[in-house]
UniProtKB/TrEMBL annotation:
Every HTH cro/C1-type domain range: 41-88
Xref: PROSITE patterns: HTH_CROC1 (PS50943)
Pfam family, one: HTH_31
Protein name: Helix-turn-helix domain-containing protein
Region (Disordered): 20-43
Matches recorded under SMART domains: HTH_XRE
UniProt-listed InterPro entries: Cro/C1-type_HTH, Lambda_DNA-bd_dom_sf, MLTR_LBD
Length: 277
């Protein structure tokens, strides 16, 4: 199973179908159908009416017949399908209507960011790119997770660790949610970086080797997760919870600085014990 770099026409067709099929007429203010429907979701005719386009246009989009929606039509479709902000951005990426940078994907942390991450200790922090490749980290992050320097560079990837590394697989209490959010982030990155063969190869590996990833990838959920809370089981200090925040530097927009903070007093004490070690 190979994941190609993004075919925008095919992916746009599949994405529009899945978003249409998840909606109920009641969700968009339409009267309930007088007869039960054989297929779930809205009809194409209803989407066309809500978006102000022809039914034939919606049919051709969903059949991947080479259409490229304008920004105005993409916005109308996003409103008609009640897309969340991250889904709307994904639609604009597939329609090639969102401005994008020309920089190559980052493969090394910018030196100022690497120094910043070191200075952030004792807060665990690291630098990643859009693929979840880990480019730099501090000692506190090493204590919280593992020493990434002991891994070969291709395995310094947060998603690979969550899926494949035996210790990291077991450290997240709510692992299913962590994986689901990671998959949704990677799908957004896949559309935003359509020519990134390394990312496509990474997704192929995950889909081939992990049934859970393959199932979640097929759901076409899209979400860029910039903050949240993770419950963890640490082999040395036990259970702890962290809040994480992901920041994007203006001058290095393909790099993300992730910073973790204790979510409660017990977790703060656990992180202090790790720092003391």
């Amino acid at each position: 199973m190979k994941t190609p770099t993004v075919d925008p026409t095919q992916e746009l067709a599949a994405f529009l179908r899945t978003r249409r099929e998840r909606l109920d007429p009641h969700d968009v203010g339409l009267p309930p159908p007088r007869r039960s429907r054989r297929t779930p979701g809205l009809r194409r005719e209803e989407v066309a009416e809500l978006a102000g386009v022809s039914v034939d246009y919606v049919v051709r989009l969903e059949q991947a017949r080479g259409l490229r929606p304008s920004a105005a039509v993409a916005e109308a479709l996003a409103r008609a399908l009640r897309l969340a902000p991250d889904e709307r951005a994904y639609l604009f990426d597939l329609a090639r209507q969102r401005p994008r940078g020309t920089d190559r994907p980052a493969t090394a942390a910018a030196p100022p960011l690497a120094r910043l991450v070191a200075d952030l200790g004792p807060l665990p922090a690291m630098v990643m790119n859009h693929r979840f490749d880990i480019l730099a980290w501090n000692e506190a992050m090493t204590g919280l997770l593992l020493d990434f320097g002991t891994l070969p560079p291709p395995r310094r990837n947060a998603m690979w660790l969550c899926l494949m590394h035996p210790e990291i697989r077991e450290c997240y209490v709510d692992r299913e949610r962590v994986v689901r959010e990671g998959v949704a982030h990677l799908r957004a990155a896949w559309a935003a970086h359509p020519d990134d063969q390394a990312l496509s190869d990474l997704i192929t590996e995950f889909r081939t080797r992990d049934d859970e990833f393959a199932r979640l990838w097929g759901a076409r959920d899209v979400k860029v997760n910039g903050r949240g809370r993770k419950m963890m089981r640490h082999p040395d200090v036990g259970a702890l919870a962290v809040h994480f925040e992901v920041l994007m530097p203006l001058q290095d927009t393909d790099q993300r600085v992730m910073i973790c903070r204790a979510a409660d007093e017990e977790s703060r004490a656990a992180l202090d014990r790790l720092a003391a070690r």
